[in-house]
């Protein structure tokens, strides 16, 4: 028989390359992983043999991930840049996957026709589309494709024992190992083990006349006959797995992953969290879900029985947290490290040949005949159309998922940032991107500057990060308090990591940056705001590095590409022959095992129908539940939920549609009212949880108490709102709340003020800044400082003044000591201080030692860190002394002081006060810093409160503050002895600059108030301006 | 090279000879003699050392060591049993002692010291620093000018070199001479009593330095006086009250620096300490706040914390709203409050806050409702869904005027 080129395979390759090859240009850069691989590739392009990468996490080793794909991209980048390399590798992966699927199907079914179907279906399998176009897992896809290729060779080796096949199979396995570590590890268990079983089974089958006669005894004796081949292959495979990426194992041993488990959607309960169910179950399975009974039927036939077991296992493991089985099977540790979606990926790939077989039987085989006989030709065509349509739908749906529900922020032009980092030695400090998504890896790849963040969390070493279940600091807002808490710690003590610049692509983080003492530097032309922190030293010239023996560097640099070259030269001859049909080659033995497919079991057909019906019902029910939950005005509960949801997502016209129409507020008016309210909740908050309590419910009315918890960059805001609800024409509505009608007196008014400008460098030079361009540090004076204990927590409180003639930016660092002068902890002032002071302005401050767990890195913080609620730090020893270092630097921004305390009244609910903004900037988030004093006017405690709404220009804002109970407060140490200003002793400054200080000014500026444990109070105001004009 | 060739030669001879060759005995140290006699140089001169020795000892090396570093030189010339070493520029340009050793097979044959002096004749450069860059007016602050004159090759000039320091403040230019010690000289430029800018420069051997500067900032503020002004003194909760000061000066009569923060503490009749803040511009501070919405008596004093305070002024607000009507309708569910009339019987500007506390007939608090006036009036509707029929006590408060009603609320 003359062999013809398999037209279906050619078709699959053409369509696959055209479809995926063009689509990757629009998808790959928006995937989760692709840019990470690009960053690694950049590392290899830059320094091939040195595994140490300084740019992420203050340094990590790239030997923590198998290098092949990265190195190939790196090599190709010399031709056309990194992205060229990435797309080329992706194209190769596509070809390898399609041909791999073809060969795998051919091996399984022995039919070239069905294998052709397999290739075509592989192109359109939603699991492949998802892995490539949504997850961007290039190494995983490449490794899997090569594993599929190697399967034929492994089968032939076991079956025939020809050394040629041994060499080819081992050569391909080596490539798999160097491109991805998890794939061969689990691939051995889930793919190769059943494959060996099948090979032995086929060999046993040849000894008898039919599968019926094939008993376990025969199978066992055949296994023993093949034992040495299996052993030889198995031991070689294990050797390769260890040897080819030995540096990886060495590194895993040396730097065990200390990262606490980071939540991953694939471990969720898919029934509870439907979005995870969609992404990690419904999409990868897709249309396969309907054909499941056929898969199990076929895979549990005698020849495939080992595949059947493996397939079942994979299917169950892929269900994540939906069933308790995966957790039981994998154990706690493995369950929390592995992303379980890969099991579903393998299950669906494993099912591919059987699905191809099904398709073949449906299109031109016995199933077609059976269906036509039973239900008629029209039904067959409709059914076929539905399956094909369903498959196409899944592909389109998956492909466009990223378009309709973007998982990444819009593409950021990196050039301005790269230029910024390159200019004026900005790369002498670390930077931190905020709100960049996975694009941060692309930024890192383009610059030499370093960041404390990174996007490969297995390689993290900073305890601040490994103790947190956060992916990146960059997107910390999505990890709630834990993420924000972690970010806050980096922002408060940035000098620890020489962190000076922040690129903010998300204004959500602006308030915390401001209150931690950062200032806006400039807006780049791509809209990214650059923030900077003063008083941070540059990165030292010599940085710590974890070195590895040279032999490991050489292994890592040479082995991976060599495996590719070896595999290529070994297999090229065969590819050549097979592709061009240049000479006739012997048919492989498995080709004889093609089934005749003459009778499709009709019971299976019926069962499949019922199964499909069940799946449809489940889907329908899911959609119904989704609908009921989301019909906005069905119940009082729904309308409140929808109203808040609309507000959270700033969909104001939708929010307006839930307002009682009889309140006669038209949409324009509503939008106006909403647009003028500014403040932490309306501009910088993310609704975290919503508790709705409906009471006084009648048929047509109800009241709702809405307890909301908002994640704001500053702290959690718990807010209680009361709404009146009303039902009109079967729809529930929210009654509008009254708005403030206050109008300011002046249409136009003038304001004068002093503005400041600092040139930075006046002389343009590549060298250090000229001495005469360095400004003197403004002189500060610490007026009081105390170590106090309140509610089990130690704090340093005090007051300081800018005694210079220029505005100052304040950095305060406190260190605690015990009686033996042993250092116990140190931390910086976070937000209980005014970081920018005008000349002669004073501020009270408080420093909390929240980061104590860091100073000894062995401690791990409790898993849920709350920035507001401290777990009292258990000091081994009692802190008794402290050292306070303050540094002033000339400030020229954020000096707005025009908020007045216009009224103050004490009632049973606490202090009711009124703020008034008399200047020309709108204050977005006003902060009150409240200090408490005893009868001798000695400072006792400092508290703060963020006011939820902003203060508009020439307008008032009401606030309420409940004074504290300070009976339990203990002042441990009150001394100015170890206080320093710009490195000089505070005392000397006080004597020189303020020898005749009028001490009574303090008391004259405080509010007498008889409270529990104190006699005076002072309210200071610190204003954050969201949009400075 | 010759050494290697000789080894090769030996090997060849060894290979050719039939009898065993004697091992070469250790040679005696070669004789060498310094011919050049000059020991004192000036930085930048070319320095060569000439030695007399036998031709076979051409592989002699010279080690040179001075503040620049340490190096090994090979002869630059070898002829007539003489070898010549020339020192590289890096070494000859650096003033100070320069030691040399003649080495032969790790053996020191001769050693000596050259003295290189600074090159004062060629040119003088001045490196000068002045800091801090700002000082406070008065008697105890100063900036230090540090001058380090160097020669053409950056060698510091010898101690005792005369340097002229000049500094200017207003019309005065002062000039004085100081000498260097330990390679530099310094001068403390005292702060002046007037604020302004001091420019300094220095001169040495006819070379002048660049201009350096320090700013004299005014000293701490002294007591000052304040005034308050507004369009009227009615408590309408709408107009702006402005406080201004006279020019705030330090003890030497300098206007305090721009941006100095002044806090105005306002004590009202309830002993609440309110405040507003201003920053100075040309010594004058201006701060604003809003009129209260009820008659008040404010005592105001301003502070530059720790340094200065103002006189205390009083400001009395007369009540703008004397009374307001309240009408109930729709079964007492609809409450119309207003019109609020101000001091000229005009409608008040929008935004007067009105608070309604609802109590049941036994005086138990139920709810508070707040609203603000619009066009002089405001309306509260107590819907039937939210307040069932019954007797209630309603307490209204606006513009400091409280009213209490006992009403039966009914109907829809």
Question: How would you describe this protein?
Answer:
Chain A starts with 6 loop residues before the first helix and ends in a 5-residue tail after the last strand. In chain A, the strands form seven sheets. In chain A, strands 14, 15, 16, 18, 25 and 26 form a six-stranded mixed sheet that branches. In chain A, helix 2 packs across helix 3 (68-109), helix 7 (163-179) packs across helix 9 (216-244) and helix 13 packs across helix 15 (341-364). Helix content of chain A is 45%, strand content 18%. With 1029 residues, chain A is of the alpha+beta class. Chain B is built from two helices and 34 strands. Chains A and B meet through strand 19 and helix 31 of A and strand 10, strand 18, strand 22, strand 23 and strand 24 of B.
Number of strands of chain B: 34
Largest sheet of chain B: 9 strands, mixed
What structural category arises from helix and sheet content of chain A? Answer: alpha+beta
CATH-defined superfamily of the largest domain in chain B: Immunoglobulins
Question: What's the number of structural domains of chain A?
Answer: 4
The oligomerization state is heterodimer
Tell me the overall shape of chain A: globular
Strand content of chain A: 15-25%
Largest sheet of chain A: 6 strands, mixed
Shape designation of chain B: elongated
Could you provide a short overview of the structure?
The complex is a heterodimer of chains A (1029) and B (412). Chain A is of the alpha+beta class and 1029 residues long. Chain A is 45% helix and 18% strand.
